[in-house]
Each structure stands twice: as C-alpha cells, then as structure tokens.
Amino acid sequence: MKLITAILKPFKLDDVKNALQGAGITGMTVSEASGFGRQGGHTEVYRGAEYTVDLIPKVRLEVLVDDADAANIVDVIVKAASTGSIGDGKVWTTPVDQVIRVRTGERGPDAI
Amino acid sequence: MEEVVLSAGDTAWMLMSVGLVTLMIPGLALFYGGMVRAKGVLNMMMMSFGALSLVFVLWIAYGFSLVFGNSVGGEGIIGDGNEFLFLKGLDNADALIGTIPATVFVAFQGMFAAITVALISGAIADRTKFGSWMAFAGIWATLVYFPVAHWVFAFDDFVAETGGWIANTLGAIDFAGGTAVHINAGAAGLALAIVLGKRVGFGKTPLKPHNLPMVMTGAALLWFGWFGFNAGSAVASNGTAGLALLNTIGATVAAVLAWLLVEKIRDGHATSLGSASGVVAGLVAITPACAAVDARGALIIGFVAGALCALSVGLKFRFGFDDSLDVVAVHLVGGIIGTILVGLVGVEVGLFNGGGTEQLVKQVIGVVAVLAYSFIVSFLIAKIIDKTIGFRISRDEEISGIDLAIHAERGYELTDNTQGGVFGASKGA
Asked: Under 8 Å CB-to-CB from A29, ≥6 apart: which residues?
C-alpha cells in the first residue's frame, strides 16, 4: 500500500478531488498547509511597513491506495493540479505498513 | 454672570453628544484591537475600557473641579479642586452650565478626559502590565490631562469666573481639543514608547494587524462619535455646531484621499488600513479647527494632515521607538497640523485668510506648551512606574501572548476542542 501526499494550489483542490473521484477513489484527507518552494513568498504593506511573507497558503491532500493503483493515481493528481506556472506544488508517495478501518477492524488493502 | 435659562434644543443635542463621544471609546478599542496581533487583542481593548472606567471615577471625584473650578490664584494653571469636589452643587436636576444642565456638561467633558487617556494606549501595545497601565492612567489624568484641559477648555465666566491661560490669556483657538486631547495624548504616547522600549521582534519580524475589518469598523464608529466630540463642543444646538459637523466630514474625506494617494505613490497599493488611518488623521486635525475654518479650509487641513500623517508613520522605524499603533504619527502630528493651520487658513484670523501672523504665533505657543508639558511629565511618571512596580510584562509572557498571561483569556476560540481541559470549581457567586 502507498500513501500519496500532494501539495496543491488551494484553488485546484476541487479539480483534483473531482478527478480522483472519477478515478474511483472513495476517500481522502485534506488539510490547510503553508510553505514555500521555488515560487517564494509575497509582500504585504501595513502603514508603509513592507513585510515579506515566506509561507504561502497551500492545500495538503493525502490519499491511501493499493500498490497497483499508485502510479495511475499520481498521474491523475498531477494532470488535474497542473496550471503550468510556478507554485503548482508537489506529489510524492510513501510506503505504508498497515491500514486499519476503525469501525470494522478490517486490515490491509480491504481497509482502503 | 448673565442670567441663564435652560434651552431644550441645546440640552437635547448635548445629551446625544454625550452618547456619541462615549461610543468613541469602544470604537477606539476596535480600531486599536484589530491592529495588534490576535494574541494581544483583548489587552488592547481592555486598556481603553480600563481607562474609561478609572478616569471617569476621578472625573466625578475631583477631575471636573480641577479643570473647571475657579483658576487657583487666577493664574490659569489649574482649577480649584475643592470647588466642585464630588460635583458639589452640580449633581442635581436644577444646576445649569450655559444653557444646559450641569450634569450633561460634566458627562460630556468627562468623556473627553477618558478618551484622551485611552488614546495613549496605542503606543504601548502587547507589552504593558495592566495594573501599571491603570496606575499610569490615573496619575496621568491627574497631573497632565486635568491641568492642560483647564488651560484649554476653561473659559472665563462659563463654568467659573476665571479659567485657563491658553483659552483666555493667550487666546489660541482650540475648539474641541487639538492640543488638550491629541497633542497631549500623542506626546504622552511618545514618552511611554521610549520608556517601555520595543516589542520583541520590532523592526525584524512582521507585527501585522490581525483583523482589518475590525479596524475599519472602529474607524467608522470613531467618525460617527466624533460628530458629538466636535459639533458637541459648541455646547449648543446652533450654527456653530452645524459648521463644526460639516467641516468634520470635509476634512476627514480629504484626509482619506491624501493618505491613499501617498500610499499608492510610495508603496504601490492603496490599503484599507491606510483609509482607516486617514479617517482618524482627518478627524484629529479638524478637531481644533472645526469652528474656525470654512469648508475649503477644512478640505485643506484634511488633505495636509492625511498626507503628512501618512509620511510620519515611518519615523518610528527611523528613530527606533516602538509607537506600536502610531499614536505619534496620527494624534501628535495630526493635532499639531490642525492647530497650526488654524493660524494659516482660519477665517479672518489665518495668515492666508484675512489675518496676520498674530493668531499663528498664538497657535504655535499653544502647541509647544502642551507638547513640552505633556512629554516631560509623562516621561517622569512612566519612569517612576517603571522603576517601582514595573511597566512591562516578561519576555516569555510577551512572546506567548499578553492576553493569556495577564487576563487569562484568549480573544478567539476557533474550535470547540477543549484540549484536555478540566473544569475547576467556580470562585464566583
């Protein structure tokens, strides 16, 4: 099993979510995140005092998949999240030892 | 004194003006509260509510008498504190001051004392012990505001036979408190900012406003309340009140445009904080002048104040004093501009409006006297508090947030997660 983690531009979340649902994904976890990459931050001005804000708002999306589906799902996310401009985010996968569905106690791929 | 009778019209307007000026204090609390970080919003607002409560108690006890009692020795320095001690002879339904009940005049002027003290708190955001602030508020009202208000607001033969030196001997024009309120509070703010020192991270890390809609709401309430402050200072429902009211609008809108123009040219963006600041800068500057200028004069005063106050907000970074919410740039600078410009554009007295330099000189003397007295005495009071009971919270408390450290509260509880808390027995009734 794999955990796919994607850092997205907030306004692309709906596109990615719809694409994943279209690809048969039935559950995911989304949280607000902030960070920076090559895009860098932005500046804000308050009464003439300029502040450079490094951390910019992003959305972090996590989804658990079976090993066989991982490559395909990553492609779905990348395709849906891309605008072609700097700051589109990143997607990575990590191996997962065990998954348990709390309500039923199912384990492994059945719990995904 | 001439025979006086109650005017129902004057009384109705002044009753309303008391309400309007009172509303300025929560307005100021919102204006200031939105400008600090989320972890200090309650303390910022509490400083206004605390100042109001304490100062008004002192006002009833002896403040009114020190301001409006007969000038001691006829010198115009301070009123007789015994004459109206606990409002002796005034706190009944029959006593009149001018054409209104004495009680209404007492309440109206008492709110001026309260808001002047509250204005100072913007200079010392996020780092001041609440008890020390309250001590300062009481001492400052007594040693600085009451004497200066006597100088400026106590006209001969109005409440008592002899009044203050700026109003009567010097003859500087200060209709609603450019000197007594704004220069006074601004100079005190500067002194406090110097004595307390900078907030942790000042000039290095962003100390950003946490709620700009709250700042704009506060500015709007201040503007609304300021109609009572300025037009109410006519102490009558008449043409002077109408002129003051119109000029209060004219100067304010001109100041907003000027502030935004400076921002657009200097920073590239016209900001909401800039427009809220422009509102207050314009209101401050027109305060001394609102009954002494025509509509064109009000626009000039507003425009000059909006531009110069906007340019002044950078001074604290250049000179390294952490006047957190720009009490100096808005109230001190705005008060000076408004008071001096009366000597330039005041109808029949201004240098450019039919007068000579005579009034201008009087205005400058009034400005310098109040600025110097307030700064020096405020500095001494602050130093004594700092050396005895301490004026600042600890560095740890400041970093973790003054609201939790001093008031045991947080401004915002954004989730219902109790974070493992356990309810302790209530100590209340």
From this structure: A61, A62, A63
The answer to whether the CB atoms of B313 and A53 lie below 8 A apart is no
Q: What's B137's domain CATH number?
A: 1.10.3430.10
Residue B258 lies in a domain: yes
Residue B309 clears pLDDT 60, i.e. is over it: yes
Q: Smallest Cβ distance to A48: which of B206, B209, B313?
A: B313
B76-131 pLDDT per residue, tens: 999 999 999 999 999 999 999 999 999 999 999 999 999 999 999 999 999 999 99
Structurally, chain B folds into a number of domains equal to 1
> What ranges make up the beta strands (E) of B219-276?
none
Could you read off the pLDDT of B7-41 as tens digits, one per residue? 999 999 999 999 999 999 999 999 999 999 999 99
Kindly report the nearest CA distance between residue B303 and chain A, in angstroms: 17
Q: Do A51 and B310 touch (CB under 8 A)?
A: no
What share of chain B in percent tops pLDDT 90?
93
Domain ranges of chain A: 2-111
Would you state the CATH architecture of domain A2-111? 2-Layer Sandwich (3.30)
Contact residues for A56 (Cβ-Cβ < 8 A; gap 6+): A34, A35, A36, A39, A41, A42, A87
Question: What is the per-residue pLDDT across B215-263, written as a single tens digit (0 to 9) for each?
Answer: 999 999 999 999 999 999 999 999 999 999 999 999 999 999 999 999 9
- Comparing CA positions, the residue from B404, B335, B420 lying closest to residue B41 is B404
Query: Which one-letter amino acid corresponds to residue B123?
Result: A
Q: Give a yes or no: residue B415 inside a domain.
A: no
Q: What pTM did the predictor assign?
A: 0.89
| Cβ-nearest to B273 among A46, A50, A53 | A46
For A:37-56, CB contacts with B below 8 A are: 44-51, 53
Domain that holds residue B332: 8-215+224-405
> Looking at beta carbons, which residues of chain A come within 8 Å of B265?
none
Q: What is the mean pLDDT of chain B?
A: 95
In a domain, B328, yes or no: yes
Note whether B317 contacts A49, CB cutoff 8 Å. Answer: yes
Position B428 in a domain: no
Provide the ipTM. Answer: 0.78
A51–B273 CB contact, under 8 Å: no
A45: chain B residues, CB-CB within 8 Å: 263, 267-269, 271
Alpha-carbon distance of B200 to B303, in angstroms, equals: 35
